[in-house]
Design goal:
By secondary structure, this protein is α+β, with helices and mostly antiparallel strands. It is 43% helix and 30% strand. It has 2 domains: 40 residues; 48 residues, no CATH class. The strands form 2 sheets. It has a 3-stranded antiparallel sheet. Strands 3-4 form a two-stranded antiparallel ribbon. A hairpin with a 4-residue loop joins strand 3 and strand 4.
Length: 97
């Protein structure tokens, strides 16, 4: 599912124009991005959490040169779905016998 699909589905379900829905979706994504750039986590109850995680520095192998390189520590964005979301997903995708 793409952003355009999400916008179309929300517009269809709510009766709000696609341009307004697109503006809201874009604004939501921008707010999440800005919060995470500031080192803040975003928690959406019954959906999940957008979390900034710190990855420690580590050694890695450069295969071409056969040398060891150090990858510096860095911050990465992650998403952790809520327990409720995971349970709903499992129920809906359960294989029926």
């Amino acid at each position: 599912m793409t952003k355009a699909d999400i916008v179309s589905a929300i517009a269809k379900n709510t009766g709000v124009s696609r341009t307004h829905v697109l503006a809201v979706v874009e604004s939501f994504m921008e707010e999440v991005r800005n919060a995470m750039k500031g080192g803040k986590n975003v928690y959406l109850r019954s959906f999940g959490s957008f979390v900034v995680k710190k990855r420690a520095a580590k050694a890695a192998r450069h295969i071409k040169n056969e040398t060891t390189i150090i990858i510096p520590e860095r911050y990465v964005p992650t998403f952790k779905p809520s327990q409720y979301f995971c349970e709903e997903l499992r129920k809906s995708l359960k294989v029926k016998k």
